[in-house]
Every structure is written in structure tokens, then in C-alpha cells.
Amino acid sequence: MGLFAYFSFGFLISGLFLRGADADSCPVGWFPFETFCYKIFTTRMSWPDAELACQNFNSHLASIHSKEEGDQVAGYVGDHLKLFGHVWIGMRDMWKNGVWSWTDNSPSNYTAWNIGEPNNQRSQESCVELWSFSGYRRWNDKSCKSERAFLCKYGLQ
Prior knowledge:
Layout: H1 2-21, E1 31-33, E2 36-45, H2 47-55, E3 60-61, H3 67-80, E4 87-92, E5 101-102, E6 127-131, E7 138-142, E8 148-155
Parallel strand pairs: 4-8
Antiparallel strand pairs: 1-2, 2-8, 3-8, 4-5, 4-6, 6-7
InterPro entries: C-type_lectin-like, C-type_lectin-like/link_sf, C-type_lectin/snaclec_domain, C-type_lectin_CS, CTDL_fold
GO cellular component, one term: extracellular region
GO molecular function: carbohydrate binding; metal ion binding
């Protein structure tokens, strides 16, 4: 019986180690798309706090680089966000000069602004949210102090 338990424990530990080493799949609770993993967090936070929370998961607020990616993200967020509300993503105008960039330093090669956006209302909107009224497919600039749910993203290696 002792030998059986010894080998069973060894197989269990090996299985757990190998599962943890799998860099080709997303952890439980994260949504896969292409070579990235996404997770919605429903705790409402300011944009800077949300970015720090994502960094605690070795990720950033999500960047979106194509309509296809935006549609996948919108479907995921819509399915998992039960409460009505907008969602922070990783774009911001850090210097408030009209130059928008991603927190993950990826190129800003795609945008999906809602009509009339970005408008920097009252000169206080320098962070970007997925706009719930568009089914999370369009973007709106918003004050970074506003509290929102947020979407984290990281790349598989």
C-alpha cells in the first residue's frame, strides 16, 4: 500500500507541475483569444487602480488591435458582466495632448471610438472605457477617477 501511495503522490505532483507549466492555455477564469488571455473584474476601481490590479496578475488593462479582437472582447464582457456598466481598457492620453497610447506599449493601430469621441469633456477625460450602450464595441473617453469594472489582458508565451 505504501508503494502505491508513493507513486500515486508522484503522479499527482507531476500532473500539477505540468499543468502549471502549460504556456499555451489561459488559466481557469480567463478568456482566450489568439495568443492572449483576458479577464473581466467586476470590482469597480479608478483607471490607475485598475491598471495596478492588472499588473498584480502580470497583465495590463486590455489593448484592442482589430475589429475581430474587439468583437471577441465585447462578447466575453457582455456574457460575464451581469451588472450594467462601462469597463476600463488600457488606452489613455497620458499627457492630455490628444495622443492615445496603450499601457502595454503595443502600437495604437486601431480605434473604435463612439461617435463624437474622444471629446475630453471639461478637459478631464484622458482614460478609455468600453461603452456598455454599444454592447462594449465602442470606446468613450472618461475621467480616470471614475470607478469602473475593468478588463485585463496578457500574452501567452
